[in-house]
Automatic annotation (TrEMBL):
SUPFAM superfamilies recorded: CNF1/YfiH-like putative cysteine hydrolases
NCBIfam families, alphabetized: peptidoglycan editing factor PgeF (TIGR00726)
Species per Swiss-Prot/TrEMBL record: [Mycobacterium] zoologicum
The protein, known as: Purine nucleoside phosphorylase
Record gene name: pgeF
Lineage per the UniProt record: Bacteria, Bacillati, Actinomycetota, Actinomycetes, Mycobacteriales
Described function: Purine nucleoside enzyme that catalyzes the phosphorolysis of adenosine and inosine nucleosides, yielding D-ribose 1-phosphate and the respective free bases, adenine and hypoxanthine. Also catalyzes the phosphorolysis of S-methyl-5'-thioadenosine into adenine and S-methyl-5-thio-alpha-D-ribose 1-phosphate. Also has adenosine deaminase activity.
Family label: Belongs to the purine nucleoside phosphorylase YfiH/LACC1 family.
Keyword line: Copper, Hydrolase, Metal-binding, Transferase, Zinc
């Protein structure tokens, strides 16, 4: 028997936040009105049919740290130190990652009943947060060949310009990520690098959401707008 896996990614519409967080901002660390963020998170919980106590949030800090979650949490996971990936085997408990250009990585082994949500920005991806998460999933009973992955909306290589030295540094740690922007300058495609990394580790079922946060006005993008809100990407087992 296999579990049914649900994956959801929000857009910036449908909430109550005011500009520049308009309107469905799910990030509680960007300067938005806490009351508005709470209302948006309540709307999200209701839309999933899970309820607010079944959504697990983390304090994301661009690290490679992974937390294994065994039930509903009273607050954000990670405390002051922070974490950037959540793993669980508990059904109907959604792991949540918030992003505005970084890669949300939603992973699941439906046969073993193990899921994970990863915040993979440049630093975390370069330092191996996705690898650490896969290791935690395997420890929890998952099998690499049974894991499916969705790489959610993120800034694309066409719009992610970085200094040449940085592109080389990331490429050395995450092969396949260096690219050129639409202007012909050095750039990074983190989703390409992560997909290659996972494939080399035995994960075959990898889907990539084609949307670019910097190019799509329906999505939040820190690189495009500076002060802005955050999308939420969720994964859970039915």
């Amino acid at each position: 028997m296999a579990f049914r896996v649900r994956r959801v990614t929000t857009t910036r519409t449908g909430g109550v936040s005011k500009a520049p967080f308009d309107s469905f901002n799910l990030g509680d660390h960007v300067g938005d009105d806490p009351i508005a963020v709470a209302a948006n998170r309540s709307r999200l919980a209701k839309a999933t049919g899970l309820g607010p106590d079944r959504l697990v949030w983390m304090n994301q800090v661009h690290s490679d740290r992974v937390a294994v979650v065994d039930g509903p949490q009273a607050g954000v996971v990670g405390g002051e130190q922070g974490v950037d990936a959540l793993v669980t085997t508990v059904p109907r408990l959604a792991m949540v990652v918030v992003t505005a250009d970084c890669v949300p990585v939603l992973m699941a082994d439906s046969r073993a009943g193990v899921i994970a949500a990863v915040h993979a920005g440049r630093v975390g991806a370069q330092n191996g947060v996705v690898v650490r998460t896969l290791e935690a999933m395997l420890t929890a009973g998952a099998h690499a060949g049974d894991i499916s992955v969705l790489l959610g909306p993120a800034v694309s290589g066409l719009h992610y310009e970085v200094p040449a030295a940085m592109a080389e540094e990331v490429e050395a740690a995450l092969p396949g990520s260096r690219t050129q922007t639409s202007g012909g300058t050095p750039g990074l495609d983190l989703r390409a690098g992560i997909a290659r990394q996972l494939t080399e580790l035995g994960v075959q079922a990898i889907d990539v959401d084609p949307r670019c946060t910097a190019a799509d006005p329906k999505l939040f993008s820190h690189r495009r707008d500076g002060r802005t809100g955050r999308l939420a990407s969720l994964v859970w087992l039915e």
